[in-house]
């Protein structure tokens, strides 16, 4: 009984974070940073690999080429880390919010 209650609470929590982490104003692909003063990167259309996006994010944060391979893109809504070879195809209907994290 206790296990089923914990499972239900976990499922409710996941649904709440899934809907709250993707605001309606997100169009295209956005990459957010830990530093609140740093403006997020936006990509409206095109096709990019995760590695290309990480290089752009590292430049924006002034992270050296020696250390930028320690960072990756994370999707908080789906709890997914993207490999460098993952390809994002961004169209008008795309609404993805990613975080650039270590």
From TrEMBL:
One of its GO terms (cellular component) is cytosol. GO terms for molecular function: growth hormone receptor binding; non-membrane spanning protein tyrosine kinase activity. This is FERM domain-containing protein. PROSITE patterns: FERM_3 (PS50057). GO terms for biological process: cell differentiation; cell surface receptor signaling pathway via JAK-STAT; cytokine-mediated signaling pathway; growth hormone receptor signaling pathway via JAK-STAT; intracellular signal transduction. It comes from the Eukaryota. InterPro entries: FERM_domain, FERM_F1, JAK. Residues 27-102 form the FERM domain. It holds the Pfam family FERM_F1.
